[in-house]
């Protein structure tokens, strides 16, 4: 009887250790390797819908810089979380045909998911929601331009140059996205990682 109790006690202790190790491993994976994110708004439609869930590679960003076309999760500048379309880091910029060239200095604690449309050294302008990158209009079959009719936030004819080490982010839903147009490019150190797959809902499971 005593041996039976001892065996049961060992089984319980072993189970507790296994659960603790599994939880610890899951935490380490989320903290340093992969992290799931839920899409909170329609700014990335039709690519990503509200409620859709994606996996983000947190380790790849340590070895490879994001490229134009990548979908990334990042911390925006504090100006992005202000009321309206956010606050540019250059408040003296009043030109209506120019996007925000510089973010506020502080990093916000919230997370955003957008697409990289320009990197350091590029010049960018916008015409009816279409990106004009280094003087060339980009092919963007993933984007939704339907909300850009008579929308002044979809056309900025004066190009801005992206500083080295910064990335200009935009939502695929060009007529309904709060992005770098209003609060500026994002430094490399604020990028969490690249979204590379979607795992929910089941009918949208796949890689980008």
Question: How would you portray this structure in words?
Answer:
The chain has 208 residues and is α+β, with helices and mostly antiparallel strands. It folds into two domains: 1-32; 35-207, Umud Fragment, subunit A (Ribbon). The protein is 17% helix and 28% strand. The protein has two helices and twelve strands. Strands 1, 2, 3, 4, 9, 10, 11 and 12 form an eight-stranded antiparallel sheet that branches. A four-stranded antiparallel sheet has the order 7-6-5-8, with no helix packed on it. The radius of gyration is 22 Å and the shape is globular. The termini are far apart.
* CATH arch. level architecture of the largest domain: Ribbon
Number of domains: 2
Question: How many individual β-strands?
Answer: 12
CATH class of the largest domain: Mainly Beta
Strand content: 25-35%
Alpha plus pi helix count = 2
What would the principal axes of the Cα set say about the shape? globular
Gyration radius, in Å? 22 Å
Q: What is the CATH superfamily label of the largest domain?
A: Umud Fragment, subunit A
Helix-residue proportion: 10-25%
Largest sheet: 8 strands, antiparallel
What structural class do you assign from the helix and strand content? alpha+beta
CATH topology of the largest domain, by name, is: Umud Fragment, subunit A
Q: Kindly state the mean pLDDT as a whole number?
A: 85
Distance between the termini: 59 Å
Which spans have pLDDT < 50 for at least 5 consecutive residues? 17-33
Q: Please provide the ordered H/E string of secondary-structure elements.
A: HEEEEEEEEEHEEE
